[in-house]
Amino acid sequence: xxxxxxxxxxxxxxxxxxxxxxxxxxxxxxxxxxxxxxxxxxxxxxxxxxxxxxxxxxxxxxxxxxxxxxxxxxxxxxxxxxxxxxxxxxxxxxxxxxxxxxxxxxxxxxxxxxxxxxxxxxxxxxxxxxxxxxxxxx
Length: 138
What we know:
With about 140 residues, the chain is an alpha+beta fold. Helix content is about 25%, strand content about 40%. It has three helices and seven strands. Strands 1, 2, 3, 4, 5, 6 and 7 form a seven-stranded antiparallel beta sheet that branches. It is globular.
């Protein structure tokens, strides 16, 4: 599996990730990391990181971990817990596959700030929709 090619394709072609300033920085078997440099639009009315930004990063990381087997996945459910916010301008979301079947893949995600503090975490259930045609980013 050419993980670097998958990383490059994701970072070049995934419009949603590009729009939100999220980039895939690591992918290996059953594991992925995405990172984001936060801007004003990543924050809510109170200048805290918006919960949607956390959840978006977690979803992107879980998708990367799930598709590290060369298949395509979509999210069918998640349960996410928010522990604390941060003033940091950089976040890292790390995902690990906990269980992989023929069609269902369960992924655990943690999001940390630059000090390594866990800000939120939760499981994502992913559904396999088929083989990746090419190094696509969907």
